[in-house]
Design a protein that fits this description.
The strands form eight sheets. A 13-stranded parallel beta sheet has the order 11-14-17-20-23-26-29-33-37-40-43-46-49. Strands 12-15-18-21-24-27-30-34-38-41-44-47 form a twelve-stranded parallel beta sheet, with no helix packed on it. It has five helices and 54 strands. It has 587 residues and is mainly beta. It has four domains: 6-128, Phage P22 tailspike-like, N-terminal domain (Tailspike Protein, Chain, Beta Complex), CATH 2.170.14.10; 134-294, 3 Solenoid (Pectate Lyase C-like); 344-517; 523-584, no CATH class. Strand 5 (63-65) and strand 6 (71-73) form a beta hairpin. The longest helix is centred in the N-terminal third of the chain and has 13 residues, at 109-121. Residues 4-110 form the Bacteriophage P22 tailspike N-terminal domain. This is Pectate lyase superfamily protein. Residues 265-432 form the Right handed beta helix domain.
């Protein structure tokens, strides 16, 4: 071997970006004769590794680059040499050539260094980064210093992701200060952070209402694991909120927001009107998110949408607590109208100015086939779960075919579970409680008409199955349950305790004929129909509905002053008048 060794390395000093820059990670290095293509085996020259004892061992090509950007042999970082001048080509993990030097001996290292800096500093400089797998706003000039406006850099990163092979933008290093712009996330692009300590701050209120900070309008976009903090300046109205944290447009499909933390009152002393999420479109998902200080945590309209394992709290009960009016900016935790085949599961809705979960027809929406399960709703000013029709029931305005199951509802100011015109639905295995904490929270503002479970709007509230629910309320609670409507199945498996009144339909006919009540105990007053010379001194009548049978217990005290007569009493059994005759002897 000759005495001259040529070190195999890039002809520039390695450098990194502010984030863990990995130069052509998992790429390949080819070494060949000068002014030839070193990828061609015919042009390749011998390459050696130098061991710790200075011995040299010839190796095969190409040389592998590890995840840290260093050339390795058998996984170990080594010193590589050749015995002559050479050309070198560097390919990234995808087989794309990143660099080619035809003759290393003719390269001025400083010129190459400046060339690379210029290439990487261009608007499309990210395309030269092989194997990194993601973009960052810093690659496009973001400072992330809490003072500079990083909006333009974020926009450039989004644009680059929309046209390039790298679709992931990583924002996990901290928070980017932005003006009130809109970030429209294209199809397939993901923005991923490092938790609530990373993300975006919008300290200046939008100049006009209905502003969207993030918009998803395509297919397969993802926002994950970062925070969105914005300021409304106390502006807006419930009909035209000042801002939306994230809006899934009606054209959006298979888009997701996961692990986001949204605060609608950043550095604000007065809360304005906003939505954490506006969720429309098809097959979109909000999961594991936390939304605070937004008028509504999420508003929903669309098909096959999912709201999962999230927490919605606008702070009304804890931060205001006065009598709620419609001018207040705090409304529902989850508010839905016109939703089809959607899943609302595992969410916690607390301290909201209206209901924890509201689902309605909305006068112009048909809600059907939805599952509301395993949610927790407590300390909301209005109801825990509120479903029903606004306006007149029609084929385009209805709330039907729901499954409402296994929810935990506690100490909401109004009725815990409310079904107003909801029909053809199954209400099962829900746990409903009113505890002494209710009195502490609401005091003199307690509702005088509240109940554990209530079915209202008799004309539309029909054909529901009520089974396996546990309702335990205070003895001072006005109603334990209130059932209205027809065609319902009221299962004996419901457990009901407490309440001043248990209102299970208003008439015997509704209990015994127009609904299937598996267990109920009621009273009636027996009456004398025929006979003379008789006096009904006292009477009691009780009936028990159990498993489709009606058992009657009648007690009469009658005095007679004339000869023997027939005494008849009438009872209703599933709509049939039954007449029973007893002989009363002259006294």
């Amino acid at each position: 071997m000759t005495d001259t060794n040529y070190l195999v390395s890039t002809p520039v000093t390695p450098f990194s970006t502010p984030r863990s820059f990995k130069s052509v990670a998992h790429g390949k290095i080819y070494i060949g004769s000068p002014d030839t293509d070193p990828v061609n085996p015919a042009n390749q020259i011998p390459v050696y590794v130098v061991n710790e004892d200075s011995s040299e061992v010839r190796i095969s090509q190409p040389i592998t680059i590890n995840a840290g950007g260093f050339p390795v042999y058998n996984g170990q970082i080594m010193k590589f040499i050749t015995k002559q001048n050479f050309s070198m080509a560097v390919y990234d993990a995808y087989g794309v050539q990143q660099f080619y030097w035809p003759d290393i001996s003719k390269i001025d290292p400083s010129s190459v260094f400046n060339l690379l800096l210029n290439m990487l500093g261009a608007d499309d400089g990210a395309k030269y980064i092989g194997g990194l797998g993601f973009l960052t706003p810093e690659m496009f000039g973001a400072k992330r210093d809490g003072v500079s406006d990083d909006s333009e850099a974020v926009q450039l990163a989004i644009y680059r992701a929309s046209i390039g092979p790298t679709k992931i933008i990583w924002v996990g290093g901290g928070k980017y200060l932005c003006s009130p712009v809109n970030f429209n996330i294209p199809s397939g692009v993901s923005i991923i952070g490092g938790g609530a300590g990373s993300g975006f701050i919008f300290p200046t209120p939008p100049s006009s209402a209905m502003h969207e900070f993030f918009t998803l309008a395509g297919n397969g976009s993802l926002l994950k694991d970062f925070s969105i903090q914005f300021n409304t300046g106390g502006l807006g109205s419930i009909g035209a909120v000042q801002a939306y944290g994230v809006w899934f447009k009606d054209t959006a499909t298979n888009c997701r927001a996961e692990g986001l933390t949204i605060d609608g009152k950043y550095s604000d002393t007065v809360m304005g009107f906003s939505n954490g999420f506006r969720l429309t479109g098809q097959d979109n998902t909000v999961r594991n998110c936390i939304v605070t200080h937004c008028s509504m945590g999420v508003t929903v309209r669309g098909t096959r949408l999912s709201i999962l394992d999230s927490h919605f709290d606008n702070g009304y009960t804890t931060e205001d607590g006065t009598v709620w009016t419609s001018s207040k900016p705090q409304w529902d935790g989850i508010a839905c109208e016109g939703i089809l085949d959607c899943l609302i599961s595992g969410n916690t809705c607390t301290n909201n100015g209206q209901s924890g979960i509201y689902i309605g027809g909305g006068g112009a929406g048909y809600s059907s086939g939805n599952i509301i399960t395993n949610n927790r709703c407590f300390h909301n000013w209005n109801r825990g779960i509120d479903t029903g029709i606004s306006g007149t029931q029609s084929t385009t305005n209805d709330v039907t075919n729901f499954t409402i199951s296994d929810n935990h509802l506690r100490d909401n100011r109004e009725t815990q579970l409310w079904l107003y015109g909801t029909n053809n639905s199954r209400i099962s295995n829900n746990s409903v409680f009113e505890t002494s904490e209710y009195n502490t929270l609401f005091g003199t503002q307690a509702s005088a008409t509240r109940a554990g479970i209530a079915l209202g709007l008799s004309s539309a509230c029909v054909n529901n199955v009520i089974e396996g629910n546990t309702v335990i309320v205070q003895s001072t609670t006005p109603y334990s349950v209130v059932y209205n409507g027809t065609g319902h199945k009221i299962s004996a498996s419901n457990r009901i305790l407490g309440g001043q009144t248990t209102y299970i339909f208003g008439t015997d006919a509704l209990r015994l004929y127009f609904n299937n009540v598996e267990f109920y105990q009621g009273t009636f007053s027996p009456q004398l129909i025929v006979g003379s010379g008789l006096t009904l001194s006292s009477s009691t009548g009780r009936y028990t509905i159990k498993s489709g049978r009606v058992n009657f217990d009648i007690s009469l005290t009658i005095t007679a002053s004339s000869p023997t007569v027939s005494v008849n009493h009438r009872i209703y059994s599933r709509g049939i008048i039954c007449i029973s005759t007893r002989q009363i002897l002259q006294r």
